[in-house]
Amino acid sequence: MKTMTCKQLGGACDKTFSANSFDEISDKSKQHGMEMFQKGDKDHLKAINEMMTLMQNPEAMKEWFDNKRKVFESLPED
Ligand SMILES: [Zn+2]
Question: I want to staple 6 with a disulfide (CB 3.0 to 4.6 A). Which of 15, 41, 51, 58 is the partner?
Protein backbone atom coordinates (compact mmCIF):
# COMPACT_ATOMS: atom_id res chain seq x y z
CA MET A 1 0.00 0.00 0.00
CA LYS A 2 1.06 3.57 -0.66
CA THR A 3 -0.30 6.72 0.93
CA MET A 4 -0.92 10.17 -0.52
CA THR A 5 -2.71 13.19 0.92
CA CYS A 6 -5.69 14.98 -0.52
CA LYS A 7 -3.38 17.95 -1.24
CA GLN A 8 -0.89 15.76 -3.11
CA LEU A 9 -3.76 14.61 -5.30
CA GLY A 10 -4.88 18.11 -6.21
CA GLY A 11 -7.27 18.52 -3.29
CA ALA A 12 -7.25 20.88 -0.35
CA CYS A 13 -6.68 19.09 2.96
CA ASP A 14 -4.33 16.69 4.69
CA LYS A 15 -6.62 13.68 4.66
CA THR A 16 -4.66 10.60 3.58
CA PHE A 17 -5.64 7.83 1.19
CA SER A 18 -3.99 4.44 0.91
CA ALA A 19 -4.15 2.16 -2.11
CA ASN A 20 -2.24 -0.42 -4.09
CA SER A 21 -2.55 1.37 -7.40
CA PHE A 22 -2.70 4.93 -8.63
CA ASP A 23 -6.13 4.36 -10.19
CA GLU A 24 -7.45 3.19 -6.85
CA ILE A 25 -6.02 6.14 -4.94
CA SER A 26 -7.28 8.65 -7.47
CA ASP A 27 -10.77 7.10 -7.19
CA LYS A 28 -10.65 7.46 -3.42
CA SER A 29 -9.58 11.08 -3.63
CA LYS A 30 -12.30 11.77 -6.22
CA GLN A 31 -14.93 10.28 -3.90
CA HIS A 32 -13.67 12.40 -1.03
CA GLY A 33 -13.66 15.47 -3.30
CA MET A 34 -17.31 14.84 -4.19
CA GLU A 35 -18.22 14.50 -0.51
CA MET A 36 -16.52 17.76 0.34
CA PHE A 37 -18.13 19.36 -2.71
CA GLN A 38 -21.58 18.32 -1.43
CA LYS A 39 -20.74 19.76 2.00
CA GLY A 40 -19.82 23.00 0.27
CA ASP A 41 -16.28 23.08 1.65
CA LYS A 42 -14.72 26.28 0.24
CA ASP A 43 -11.16 25.01 -0.10
CA HIS A 44 -12.28 21.89 -1.93
CA LEU A 45 -14.66 23.87 -4.14
CA LYS A 46 -11.70 25.97 -5.20
CA ALA A 47 -9.57 22.88 -5.86
CA ILE A 48 -12.42 21.28 -7.85
CA ASN A 49 -12.87 24.45 -9.90
CA GLU A 50 -9.17 24.42 -10.75
CA MET A 51 -9.52 20.78 -11.77
CA MET A 52 -12.51 21.60 -14.00
CA THR A 53 -10.45 24.31 -15.72
CA LEU A 54 -7.60 21.86 -16.21
CA MET A 55 -9.99 19.27 -17.69
CA GLN A 56 -10.83 21.66 -20.51
CA ASN A 57 -7.30 21.16 -21.76
CA PRO A 58 -6.79 17.42 -22.36
CA GLU A 59 -3.03 17.79 -22.83
CA ALA A 60 -2.58 19.67 -19.55
CA MET A 61 -4.88 17.20 -17.82
CA LYS A 62 -2.86 14.25 -19.09
CA GLU A 63 0.38 15.87 -17.98
CA TRP A 64 -1.08 16.61 -14.53
CA PHE A 65 -2.27 13.04 -14.23
CA ASP A 66 1.07 11.60 -15.36
CA ASN A 67 2.87 13.74 -12.79
CA LYS A 68 0.63 12.51 -9.98
CA ARG A 69 1.10 8.94 -11.15
CA LYS A 70 4.89 9.43 -11.02
CA VAL A 71 4.63 10.81 -7.48
CA PHE A 72 2.61 7.77 -6.49
CA GLU A 73 5.06 5.37 -8.12
CA SER A 74 8.07 7.02 -6.47
CA LEU A 75 6.59 6.67 -2.98
CA PRO A 76 7.86 3.93 -0.68
CA GLU A 77 5.47 1.14 0.26
CA ASP A 78 3.82 1.68 3.66
ZN1 LIG B 1 -9.59 16.91 1.12
Answer: 15
